[in-house]
Specification:
Elements (H helix, E strand, L loop, with lengths): L2 H13 L8 H8 L4 E6 L2 E10 L4 E9 L8 H12 L4 E7 L3 H6 L3 E12 L10 E3 L5 H8 L8 H8 L5 E7 L2 E10 L4 E8 L2 H12 L7 E7 L3 H9 L3 E11 L10 E3 L7
Parallel strand pairs: 3-4, 9-10
Antiparallel strand pairs: 1-2, 2-3, 4-11, 5-10, 5-11, 6-7, 7-8, 8-9, 9-12
C-alpha cells in the first residue's frame, strides 16, 4: 500500500468496531512502509493486511480485513499467504479477534494470553506528587532504552512517531532520577485510548493513568487494552470503574517472547503489537 491507501485500512477497521486513533496511519506506516498489503479485484480494493517487519527476527500481523461482500471466497486467504511470505522465517505475533482465533491456530499460531479492552470515563485531576513529566523533556534515547525490554524487537521508529502524534499526550514518571514508566493517550474515532502504559509498579502505573486521563473530560470514553495475564493491570482498570468491552488473543507463530508482562499495564496497539 501507499501511505494514502493505509487510510482505507483504517477506515475498514473503524467499520469493524476497532476504534482506530485519528493519527494511527502515520505512526503505523513509520514502523514499516513496506508492511501494508492490499488485495485488488480488478481496480477495486477488497482486502487488507498489515505485516510489520520490525527486524530480521520479529514481525506483527494486523488489519486482516476482507470487505463483507467478498468474504468466504478465498480472496482473504490469498492476501494472508502473501503477508506470511513477507514475514517468512520470522516469529510473527498477532492479536486475534475471537471469531478468527481457530483459523489462526490452523496457520500455526498458538495462544500466549488474552488482551482485554476496558472502557471507562475520562476527566479527573492529575496526581500532584512529583515525578510526572512530559516525555518531550527527556532524551529519546532515554525513552527508547526504557521501552526496549517490553517488545520483542526495536520499535524506535514507531515510538518516535507515536509519542509526537498530533493531539496526543505522552508522559513519563521519574523515580530516583530515572525513568520508571511512561504512557500515551491519543484521540480515537470514539473517545481516547491509553497505550502503551508501562511502569515499574502498579502505583506508578496508576499515577500515569490518572495524569493521562486528566487531559480528557468526564464525558469522554477512555479505553485501556490490558494483558489479562497481569492481574495488577486488570485490578487497575477495574478499580477505576472500567468495564470489559472487547478482547483479543495474543498469539505467536514461533516462540512466545519473554517480556516483562508484570510491568505492562496497557498495550500500545492491537494492530501492530
Amino acid at each position: 500500500m501507499s501511505r494514502e491507501e493505509v487510510d482505507l485500512a483504517i477506515e475498514w477497521a473503524a467499520k469493524e468496531g476497532w476504534n482506530p486513533g485519528l493519527h494511527d496511519a502515520d505512526c503505523y506506516f513509520a514502523a514499516d512502509p513496506k508492511g501494508f498489503l492490499i488485495g485488488l479485484l480488478g481496480d477495486e480494493p477488497i482486502a487488507t493486511i498489515s505485516v510489520i517487519k520490525y527486524d530480521d527476527a520479529f514481525g506483527f500481523l494486523g488489519f486482516y480485513i476482507v470487505k463483507p461482500e467478498y468474504r468466504g471466497q478465498g480472496y482473504g486467504l490469498q492476501l494472508w499467504k502473501a503477508g506470511i511470505d513477507y514475514l517468512h522465517g520470522l516469529n510473527i505475533g498477532l492479536d486475534g479477534v475471537v471469531d478468527q482465533q481457530e483459523n489462526y491456530r490452523k496457520s500455526g499460531f498458538t495462544l500466549a494470553y488474552r488482551n482485554i479492552r476496558y472502557e471507562g470515563r475520562g476527566g479527573g485531576k492529575a496526581p500532584q506528587q512529583a515525578g510526572i513529566v512530559d516525555l518531550s523533556t527527556l532524551s529519546f534515547e532515554t525513552l527508547a532504552a526504557y521501552d526496549r525490554p517490553f517488545f520483542p524487537a526495536d520499535r524506535a521508529a514507531f515510538t518516535r512517531a507515536w509519542i509526537s502524534q498530533p493531539d496526543g499526550h505522552a508522559l513519563g514518571v521519574m523515580q530516583d532520577d530515572r525513568l520508571a514508566g511512561y504512557g500515551v493517550i491519543r484521540p480515537c474515532r470514539n473517545g481516547y485510548k491509553v497505550g502503551p502504559l508501562l511502569a515499574d509498579s502498579p502505583a506508578l502505573a496508576e499515577s500515569l493513568l490518572l495524569a493521562l486521563k486528566a487531559h480528557t473530560t468526564p464525558s469522554d470514553p477512555v479505553f485501556l487494552d490490558v494483558p489479562a495475564i497481569n492481574p495488577a493491570a486488570v485490578a487497575l482498570a477495574e478499580q477505576h470503574g472500567m468495564r470489559v468491552s472487547f478482547e483479543t488473543a495474543r498469539m505467536y507463530r514461533g516462540e512466545r517472547p519473554d517480556l516483562p508482562l508484570a510491568r505492562l499495564f496497557g498495550v500500545a496497539s492491537f494492530e501492530i503489537g
